[in-house]
Amino acid sequence: MMRTTFLVVACVVLASISPSFVSSSVAQNYDEAAAKQRQSRKTPPLSNRVYKHLSAAMKLSDRGDYNGAMDLFAPLGKMELNAYEAAQFWRFNGFLFFSMTNYPAALVAYEKVLEQPNLPASMEDQTLLTLAQLAFITEDYNKTIDYVFRFLAVNQKAPANILALVGHAYVALEEFDKALQYMEKAKDGYIGEKKVMQPWAYKQLMYLYYRADQKYKVLMAQNDFMEATPSREGWTSLAKICTKLIEEHTDAAPLSIAELEKTREDAMNKAATPTIHRQYEYSGTNKPVEYVSPVYPREALVAGKGGEVKLLYDVSKAGNVVNIKVLFSSDPIFEPAARAALESYKFNPKRLTNGGASASGTGGLLGSAQIIMPTEEKPKSLLENPLKFIHSDSEAVSDRKNFEKTFTFSVDIWEKEKPVQEK
């Protein structure tokens, strides 16, 4: 998808992002002599007995029998091993501990790998990057950065996802200038690797731009994010950013009001395309298994107007929403959008509770809490994000009737909040 020409021009105007993939501080960390010395290392061979133990243990681990694999592999630790065999022993132990989510033990095992002399350069590199990620999972953010710097001491650049991990570690340490530096490097790295930047990394970058009061860079990053992973919520957020920038516009702004209005119009047109959300796994009850998020009314968005609509509805035996009634509306302009969104809800009738079960909260187009994570499996921090789209219910259930749903529409995207680390 080609971006609008003036946005490309604006990216040039705003280009304070360093053009080189590796920052000057990282480049100074690179030790060319040490990097060359690694290439001359002589690695001893892997003996047949070690290979047989490793092969048998790997078959067990492939079947998910990690304890069995560890029992089978453990006797090798009592044998006399050469440096390469010892490295393989500890690396496989690290993998098993990681697979069993024993991250501290995995860290110790992978550190033992690095203690072995004459490691192949590729094994050393993989171990350092693995340790960086393990340190992040265990919330030792200084160690995360240290392991990556050790990697960069013998490599001239790091993978984009690792640079993003460093940026995220600096956010956790509240060193936001360094965090922004590395998230920008990560963005350049993803482009160089011809890969799509992960959503959590885009959101982290936008948060850092926002925190640094670089609002036009938030706009550019949101535009890039939507070109990579388009959604109704994301295009709506882009339109809201434009509305706020129009309200705050000055002669020194890199984009004119006309350009911002055109960007907003394009975003609102793209936001009109529904994004179907399917949620098949819920820990709770009374949640839709499918829904379409509401369209922010165009007139309200252009006017910078927010509002709230509270609806009463029933759920049919087929799981469809019926008998919708408006209980409260701050402005009639929001009612059609709220009603249309609620009509898209599909429920699993078997998951609906009876007898007054309830869940409290508000739903809407903007909120504050946003989980930012480097991996899908292990979210480690809770970051306040002004561009977050939230969707939750406020319902009181009785015999599948008289459910309540509140939609909150808000254009307040510049409210600054300090990141909160999940404990």
TrEMBL record:
> Among the entry's GO cellular component annotations, what is one?
plasma membrane
Q: Which organism is it from?
A: Paremcibacter congregatus
In which domain of life is the source organism classified? Answer: Bacteria
Membrane-related topology note: Single-pass membrane protein
The UniProt keyword set, sorted, is: Cell inner membrane, Cell membrane, Membrane, Protein transport, Signal, Signal-anchor, Transmembrane, Transmembrane helix, Transport
Q: Please identify the protein, giving its name as recorded.
A: Protein TonB
The entry's family comment says:
Belongs to the TonB family.
Record carries keyword DNA repair? no
Example of a GO MF term: energy transducer activity
- Swiss-Prot/TrEMBL GO biological process terms: protein transport; siderophore transport; transmembrane transport
